[in-house]
Structure formats: structure tokens, C-alpha cells
Design brief:
The longest helix has 19 residues, at 181-199. A hairpin with a 5-residue loop joins strand 3 and strand 4 (106-111). With 258 residues, the chain is of the alpha/beta class. The protein is globular. The chain is built from 12 helices and 4 strands.
Length: 258
């Protein structure tokens, strides 16, 4: 796995933000140029976090290896040839992203300031989030994101894509997974929000629903991600069949679950 820390090194060296503000990463989200000049007051702890994450990335171990490699035999190849970029300059809530570079190849981008100082605590590992982002690569390679698709198909793709990526990186040891009461409540809430999104007919509000489906500072508010994750977790033994069936109609399957 390759590590590109060019932006972080420039920030830590005290470079003018204009020197890296033009990087392709800040316009690759499809939401215009999102660059926000990083606060120089964070440099000391960002330097520590950069060293920590680079060591962990170099020793990457995929979470739920048995499940992941059974579903995605190509995962080892993807991880070995992959580039992780360490950056600063993204606004909340963009801490970890899978972005497509100008050469057409995907990159995982970590914004270290958005990761926050909590990532310096002793028990923190980036292997979960890195597993999640690499799963997006594997999923997108097998199921390319539909272009010019209708609203419901776009929502299907989000729920499917985020559902599998979040479920397989949710925690270690998914065999025989059983939901607790708290997660069941989260699932019910996310499914209710998904039902409202599927019923939406106004084009402007549909676009807002698509953004909220997988983007929020509050993890549990991302109704597309959470409903998809919980559906996949609730059907852990059927993951191969769910994956093979693909994303079309996936949101309706989630709504029909219970």
C-alpha cells in the first residue's frame, strides 16, 4: 500500500495553504471546490497522528478478513496496489473519502484534522475505516456507479454500497451476528427515513435526500448508510446472495425487512 503525505507535509512545514489548495482532491467530491484553509494551531498533534497512521497503514490488516476475502477475492490485490493520501483542508464531515484521481484510479483520502485528536488515543486503529474505504473500491469495481440514473436507482446504489462497506467494517467477528435493542431501534429509525426518501417526488428535495443518505456529522443520521448496514448485518449468513443480486431494488428490500 502506497502512502502519499504531500499535502500534510506541506501543512506541517508551514507552507502557504495556496500551495496545496489547488490539489485535485478538493474538487473531486462533485460538490465544487471544498477547500477550507487548515488552522496552523493543529500542527503539533497532526504531526503525531500522521506518524501513527502511516505506521498503521504500513501494517494494514483487513477487518473481518474471512468475510471480506470470501466476498471479494480481489481484495488483496486492491489493497496492495492502493494509494492512501493524508491531507488537511476538508470541511466537516469529510474525514475519510474514496475519490477518483485524474488518472481515473481511486484513492482513499484521510483528512487528519477531521479525524481529530481522539484518533491519537492508544486503542484507536484506522484499520476499520481503511477496510471500509477499500471495500468501496471493491464494490465500485464490481458494480460501477450508474450514470444518469433515476432517483430511486441512485438511492438503491447508496444503500447497497454504504450498507456493505459499513457492515463488513462495523466490528470484528460478524459470524452469527445478532442485533441488540439499541441497534434495532437505529435500524427502525433509518428505515423510516428511507421510506420517506423513497416517497419524495420533488426533484430538489430528492437531491437533498441523496446527500443526507450518506453524509452527516452524526453517523446515525445517515439513513441510507445505516439502513443498508443494518439490513446486511441482519442477514449476515446471506451476504453472498445479497451481494450477487446487486444494488437494483435494494432499498425496497430493506423496507420490506420486518
Amino acid at each position: 500500500m502506497v502512502i502519499d503525505d504531500t499535502i500534510v507535509r506541506a501543512y506541517l512545514a508551514g507552507a502557504d495553504p495556496a500551495e496545496y489548495a489547488g490539489s485535485w482532491v478538493f474538487s473531486a467530491l462533485g460538490r465544487g471546490d471544498v477547500f477550507a484553509p487548515p488552522d496552523p494551531a493543529h500542527r503539533a498533534w497532526v504531526a503525531q497522528l500522521s506518524r501513527k497512521l502511516q505506521a498503521q497503514i504500513s501494517a494494514f490488516a483487513v477487518r473481518n478478513e474471512g468475510h471480506v476475502r470470501a466476498l471479494f477475492p480481489e481484495f488483496g490485490r486492491l489493497a496492495a496496489e492502493f494509494t492512501v493520501m493524508l491531507a488537511v483542508g476538508f470541511p466537516d464531515p469529510y474525514d475519510a473519502m474514496m475519490l477518483t484521481a485524474q488518472d481515473g484510479r481511486p484513492r482513499v483520502v484521510f483528512d487528519l484534522i477531521r479525524f481529530g485528536q481522539a484518533a491519537l488515543r492508544e486503542g484507536y486503529s484506522c484499520h476499520g475505516v481503511l477496510t471500509h474505504e477499500l471495500l468501496h473500491i471493491a464494490l465500485h469495481e464490481r458494480f460501477p456507479e450508474p450514470e444518469a440514473a433515476a432517483y430511486e436507482e441512485r438511492l438503491d446504489y447508496i444503500v447497497f454500497d454504504e450498507g456493505f462497506a459499513h457492515a463488513l467494517s462495523y466490528r470484528e467477528g460478524l459470524a452469527g451476528f445478532t442485533m441488540d435493542d439499541q441497534l434495532r431501534a437505529r435500524y427502525a429509525s433509518a428505515r423510516a427515513a428511507l421510506a420517506r426518501a423513497l416517497a419524495e417526488s420533488d426533484p430538489a428535495r430528492q437531491e437533498a435526500c441523496l446527500e443526507r443518505a450518506d453524509t452527516s456529522p452524526d453517523f446515525w443520521a445517515k439513513f441510507g448508510s445505516i439502513s443498508g448496514m443494518c439490513y446486511v448485518l441482519a442477514h449476515e449468513a446471506q451476504m453472498p446472495a445479497l451481494l450477487k443480486a446487486g444494488y437494483r431494488g435494494f432499498a425496497r428490500k430493506v423496507l420490506a425487512d420486518g
